[in-house]
Amino acid sequence: MTAPHSTSPQELSGRSLYDKDGQKVGSVQQVYLDDASGEPEWVTVRTGMFGTKETFVPLGGAQISPDRLQVPYGKEDIKEAPRIDAGGHLDPAEEENLYRHYDMSASGGRTGRRPEDTAGAPRTAEPARSRG
After folding, report:
1. Domain ranges of the chain
2. Is 2.30.30.240 the CATH classification of the domain at 9-127?
3. DSSP state of 130
4. Which residues, in sequence order, are bridge partners of residue 64?
């Protein structure tokens, strides 16, 4: 099954994240939803020495199975992603930096540039909120 469509944030949170070569990167900490679609678009995973850094990873092209979430990026690419504070809303500039780092467009394709969405406004993402 390909993520993120039809995947709830609860299904992704805490799941082990693996890189393109099958190496474990860490566990999903937070799930960010696309503002326009409401679908999971980004996750954060703890990286760095002792898991002190929380890194954003896009879900475009990810594969989900019962025990893992595998993304089409190398572990080093993930660790070298721009530092962005997790927990708040991703603003357009932060998201642009992440798209550029992962060589992606806003639609999830790996194109090297990020076009504007159909409404002409930059796409942004917000962390998923627990429903309780």
Report:
1. 9-127
2. yes
3. -
4. 69
Burial 4-15 (b: 16+ CB within 10 A, else e): beebebebbbeb
Q: Coil, strand, or helix at residue 51? A: helix
For 34, list phi and psi in degrees, rounded to 5: -65, 130
Tokens 């099954």 belong to 1
Tens-place pLDDT, residues 72-91: 999 999 999 998 888 788 88
Query: Beta partners for 40?
Result: 33
Supply the DSSP string of 60-110, one letter for each residue: TT-EEETTEEE-SS-HHHHHTSPP--TTSPBPHHHHHHHHHHTT--TTS--
Look at residues 114, 15, 28, 105 and name the one whose alpha carbon lies nearest to residue 60. 105
Helix (H, G, I), strand (E, B) or coil at 11: helix
Q: How many CA atoms lie within 13 A of 49 on its CB side?
A: 0
Q: How does pLDDT run across 95-132, given as a tens digit for each residue?
A: 999 999 999 876 554 433 223 333 334 445 666 654 44
Cα four-point dihedral sign 63, 92, 127, 100: positive
- Mean confidence (pLDDT) of the chain: 79
